[in-house]
Amino acid sequence: MATDGIRVVLFGPPGSGKGTQAGVLSERLGVPVVSTGEMLREAVAAGSSLGRKVAEIMAAGSLVDDDTMSEVVGERLERPDVQGGFLLDGYPRTLRQADSLREMLQRQGVALDAAVLLDVPEEVLVARLTGRGRGDDGDEVVRERLDVYRDKTEPLVDYYRREDLLQVIDGDRPVQRVADDIVASLEAVR
Ligand code: AP5
Asked: How far apart are CA 37 and CA 23, in angstroms?
């Protein structure tokens, strides 16, 4: 499919497969992934001032503040490699972040093509995450991340529905089947 300029947000609860799908789709669609979780984990590992600021917040399963995230993403979206399109994994996660993203893209004279929600039942999410063992995958922190998702990120479903960008994908199937459905849904909107 023609992917020139495709700009997609991948969102969904922790463990819904955003990172996994971003990797598969990046290959298939030929656009880079911008993953805020990865960027923040790299900052923590490097011990940068950003990393020191966010380490505790991430370990607790809370959200980094919107202003910090807009700065991080704003800088990233200025770089040459994403001018022909991108897959955003993990951003936006709040209504304010969604507004910031819209404004950033407006300033660049572009817009999102789609916001893809990965829909996965909660018991599957919990099983996936507790089976993985990342630093923020302990039982209590996973519960907190799910609560934060419901409270802060789920309102994006209505936000993107109103913007006519929402694509809901059943994420509780094998990875390649999920990717096939996302590609088909993106073909339909372009
Ligand atoms: P982030 O890294 O974005 O974490 P998350 O949203 O909790 O998501 P995960 O990475 O756990 O899950 P995922 O949906 O990517 O699924 P994955 O593909 O890994 O963010 C981490 C933290 O950073 C946040 O808690 C917050 O503190 C901070 N942060 C990041 N962005 C922020 C923002 N915008 N604002 C504020 N703070 C922010 O898959 C999970 C597991 O399931 C894997 O083991 C995988 O192999 C497996 N799996 C995936 N797909 C399938 C499938 N189809 N079938 C079976 N298993 C599957």
From this structure: 14
